[in-house]
């Protein structure tokens, strides 16, 4: 499977990434593409990949201290959104 096929294999992630691409410059979209592909290749939970795309933030235990409660909640809400959308499929 090519990286493009991998990126578009999950329709929810593909749609979120397409939206991210349209809202950001090429350089930012390219960086996010690499993050998403790395997450997909390593088996990261799809809701975490989706939340990263939707918020533009990669949430980790180490960087949570630098985010506001609202930013953390936004990321958590995006992860929950993925779970709800996936359950409806």
List strands and helices in order, with pairings.
Elements: H1 3-9, H2 11-23, H3 26-42, H4 46-55, H5 69-87
Helix pairs in contact: 2-3, 2-4, 3-4, 4-5
Helix proportion:
over 70%
Helical segment count: 5
Summarize the biggest pleated sheet.
none
Distance between the termini: 23 Å
Radius of gyration: 13 Å
How many β-strand stretches? Answer: 0
How many structural domains in the coordinates?
A: 1
Mean pLDDT reading: 95
Oligomerization category of the chains in this entry: single chain
Broad shape: globular
Q: Strand content of the residues, in percent?
A: under 5%
Give the SSE string: HHHHH
Q: What tags apply to this protein structure?
A:
single chain, 89 residues, mainly alpha, 5 helices, globular
Gist of the model:
This protein is an all-alpha fold and 89 residues long. 74% of the residues lie in helices and 0% in strands.
Structure description:
With 89 residues, the protein is mainly α. It has one domain (3-87). It has helices at 3-9, 11-23, 26-42, 46-55, 69-87. It is globular.
